[in-house]
């Protein structure tokens, strides 16, 4: 069984995905079209809503900081 290779995405790409969703494109369609994992999509949405940033240090909990 082969493992899925871990991919990294730019902050700009993540923002583009969030913008597509906020413009009304269905979640399932975005995930399928861009070959994303649902957990990545959900994480990006949460980050965008809570801090408006995709920088790692901006999304740390107080315990992690």
UniProtKB/TrEMBL annotation:
InterPro entries: Homeodomain-like_sf (IPR009057), Transposase_8 (IPR002514), WH-like_DNA-bd_sf (IPR036388). One of its GO terms (biological process) is DNA transposition. Pfam families: HTH_Tnp_1. One of its GO terms (molecular function) is DNA binding. It comes from the Bacteria. Gene3D superfamilies: Winged helix-like DNA-binding domain superfamily/Winged helix DNA-binding domain (1.10.10.10). This is Transposase. The lineage of its organism: Bacteria, Bacillati, Bacillota, Bacilli, Lactobacillales.
